[in-house]
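Open question from group meeting: does this chain pack into something compact, or does most of it stay loose? Before anyone orders reagents, we agreed to write out a predicted structure and look at it together. Recording both the input and the output here so the notebook holds the full record.
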Amino acid sequence: MDFGHDLTFGTFLTPAADRPEQAVALAQLTERAGLDLVTLQDHPYQPAHLDMWTLLTWIAAHTETVHVAPNVLNLPLRPPAVVAQAAASLDLLSGGRVDLGLGAGGFWDAIAAMGGTRLTPGESVDALREGIDIIRALWDVTERGGVRIAGEHHAVRGAKRGPQPAHDIPIWLGAYKPRMLRLTGERADGWLPSLPYLGEAGMADANARIDDAAQAAGRDPREIRRLLNLMDDVAPEQLAEWTLEHGFSTYILASDDPAAIERFGAEVAPAVRALVDAERRRAGTDTTAVRPARALALRSPDIDYDAIPAELAAGAVEPGDHEYARVRSTYVRRGAPGLVLRPGTPDEVAAALSYAREQDVALSVRSGGHGISGRSTNDGGVLIDVGRLNGIEVLDPATGRVRLGPGARWAAVARELAVHGLAMSSGDYGGVGVGGLATAGGIGFLARKHGLTIDHLVAAEVVLADGTQVRADAEHHPDLLWALRGAGGNFGIVTALELDAYPLGDVVFSTMAFEADADLLERWGALLEAAPRELTSFAHVFARRGEVPVAQLYNVYAGADTAQAAAALEPLLQIGTLLAQQAQLVPYPAILPGGDGPHDGGRPPRIRSGLADHLTPQLARALDAGLRSGAMPLVQLRSVGGAVNDVDPQATAYAHRTQTVSLTGVSAGAARIDAYWDGELRPHLHGLYLSFETDRSPERLADAFPEPTLTRLRELKAVYDPDNVFDRNFAIPPAPQPVGQG
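Structure tokens returned:
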């Protein structure tokens, strides 16, 4: 009957109102004694007691390591939806230290006196079952929409989900009678009886009822932790025997005696652990955590979960895991990968890639997950998330050489570089991961002055498709470095990048809002072409059908000279009907909004990308018409040119070095934007920026990589990834090898 669970020990304290400080002091003593858990009564029949949940919260705030739990919470007096929110909130505030013991009721005269409803034993079990279902459903943020459970005793009608607790809060049931024991086996994560009521003679029969019910429900009985409240001192040998013969693994001492608590932590708990550990080693007891049946049912049949490399298993996330909601999706796409691997070293990345290649499912790679294309997740496949590779190191402040992990976020990079008076242009949102942007392009707020992010990439460390780890720089694999600067997602998993940052302190950040029309767009484009290179501007233009479009400008002058900045910005004020404007001198990191998720995705929008040599009158009119018609209710324009176009088109895999504006159109409906973009806009465009494109048709590949760039990329793909392992990010097909080779 030993289930191999880790042994934990705790206290069961009285919430006495006449000595409100006592329970808190005893909880702190519990922690100092090395125990794991503090629990409190929630009995309505006892007078002059503090409210259990209020006291539990106060204790959590005055401790650091112990878990806290009701022992047990009287559900008939506490609506389950309220319990769910309270428990999740306290779990988040305490760093994942809340467990939840529930009871069906009892003491019905006291409950009725407090306004509760008297229930028969069968009704109370049914009510508890409904309550558990409601609590778990409200914690489950992986599902969309409100929770609707029409129970006879408890009901919710579209209740908002969340918050999600910081950890998987276990639900333990105080149970003795057959119906409650069956419910424990069917639904609960733990069984929490008290020894005086259970008695040693009742242990085997109660356990058997729980196990039978668990198996009938398709569960492994090992999913259910067995806890036991002790009202008196019990010898360590006896507790060890109950662990080995009856599966109990958590012992909770009901005592307000400080000496007894200290003895329980200093003598009893270590002795029980030693006895049990010795017997488990002798018997070869399996002590690995059992995966719940509800989680096993969500596994992909095409993934060999048992073969996950040992060094990756602890951080792996599957459907049904608590962390799954945080890692499944991207900013715009709700994904459902069958497995997420989170390597923390290059060797672990190589192990993850080798394992993933053995599975007959899609493979995706993610650095941050903000990517507008939504390609860094999948459905049913393996996702390698390199978010743990998030180091930021300034190697040489004098030259600006920096080393970044692909999982670092640009807001954090900007803050660290600013300490040394440095900066790096990196898009317009600080929550974006370094890896995706720094290998695709990087059209940021400093682009016209300092170029693209990839223009400053001087070296990268990469795990290739075959697991080989290489460094690409001017002396080693320079052809690979060339490809990584614009098409990086096709050639391997980058584990570190080196870039040359440049000196920059404060910048002038300006926002302006206008009524938008074709003339405004044309004037904006012409003005930015002629503006000083220090000025970069992004325009977000949005419209509702039948309403005048509005343009929101975000302008950055890359320097602290406010007089020169004003001279560069003032012409923008004249391009149309001004609705609002402001400007301020700020450190560069201040203009990058932070936030690193989690992303919960959604129905992916249809996004179209294009580049234009000039924002001509014809292109401006086409954009305006598309906005007003609803074909694309949102358009983003980014000024490029300047330093971006100083680079030879063949120097990087990003070959677009003549254009002055990047355009992105967004729509929820694919048909309308596709027809409008292809028919009205594409004739005016010259290339596209792949990170902002969701169309995977072969024609878009030629737009992103014009010849001779595409031919060269295909030839290199045949060298570095001949099997096209990395085929999810605007896949470049390998060039066919000559007959007799390969």
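Observations to bring back to the group:
The CA atoms of residues 431 and 596 lie 5 Å apart.
The chain has three domains: 8-125+162-283, 298-385, 506-704.
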